[in-house]
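Extended Data, record Phospholipase D-like domain-containing protein
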Amino acid sequence: MSAGLDFDIEQVSRPGFKLAHFKDAALPVYQLTVKVLTLEKKPINPIEEGCLRAIDAGLGRTSEIREFLGLEDVVLTTVLASLNSQELINYMGASDGEATASLTLKGRAAVDLAHMSVPEERIIKLMFDPFLKRVVFHQSGLLWKAKEVRSEGKMEVPLCGAKRPEIEDVLLEDIDAALERLRRPNEDSKELLAIRRIERREMLFVPCTMLYFRSETGNETQVAFYLDNRISVEHENSFRDLGGMDEVGAKHVLADQFSEVVNQAALGQSEKSQLLHLQNLTGGISTEVKSEDTLPTPVVNPTLKNIRCHEHPGLLEDALINSKERLMIISPWIRHQVVTDRFVRNLETLLRNGIKVYIGYGLVDEDGKNKAGGKLAITPKADRDLKDLEKRFKNFTFTFIGNTHRKVLVSDSRYAITTSFNWLSFKGDPRDKPRDEAGIYITKSDYIDSTFTDCLDLIQRGYAH
């Protein structure tokens, strides 16, 4: 047994790679509360069975059935009407005023088996794995809630764009298998007719060990998951295909920077230069003189600093990942090209950790239409994603202001930025055509607090002259 591991390294060894790092982690699964429609087999009560057997014996007129069974007219009429509604008999009037009855195919089967099939709605609980995209089975006592994962210091494996399940994602054969597992001894199996709806989704976590491997000869890295006493190849392949390796810092294995990279799980290689610039901006990296031709540029962590267009995306990324208490974003427009699935995942992580998040947006025409110069305030996908978070988290305030042209970002008491950069509608990619945007980055606590308070007032009461 290797120190810190619940298994021998030989168990997980792979040719051409060596285990470079491991981390206690937790894979997300959804516990679904689902309403389904099943076909239940129920015993026929004695009077109904007597009527069916009488009809099967050739007694078709109601007077014949009544005399044979010795039933009152009102009782027989009620029973025959019930059997007709269950499609067990054909119950018809006659020209002489006396009704007749005959068995349907369903009625004949009920006579043979002494039971009838009745549609019935029921509620069942399922576990759905967003990486495997199917129903899975876990012992409920071994699953953790997000709070328990954090308290134990485990890493929540990011969803990496894996969507929460909808009805169409749950296969009928998976429901059938779940119903079979839930069936009591000596209970008849139930036929599944349809999935009505998903009543509730709760994210739980399966404890695992996340393993980082690196090539012995090149730069290739791999991430694997050890759970249920084995490496799950399915989870490994799905996680890789979803781009998860970048999100948990697999590309940084060669630099042996795991403690920082795993804590900054949402940062990929493409953001590395922005992160390095951000650390310079906030005083996180000191500048050394490399040669006589290089001028010293000491960082003094200034209270006030000008920032350019290409510096904004890194700051927004930092705020989404590192805010600990509060996050404020004011942006006239919101686009799904900026509020991407990854942005939404990072925002959801903040909300799950209890951070208060405020987003205010919206600039409309003078006639009150939700457009300014023909430009929508928010694209439909971004609107759906953010409103979904607002419904699920009480610590998220998402407000349409309607007449704001402010562009503000506030993260905790670390910094406030007032700028011309549209935070949630412009990517600011340095590879695109240059665009002049400038902002003021401030770290003075009094100004940060006053900026936050002013923006909060704007969100709560709007702006008026």
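Summary. The longest helix spans residues 445-461.
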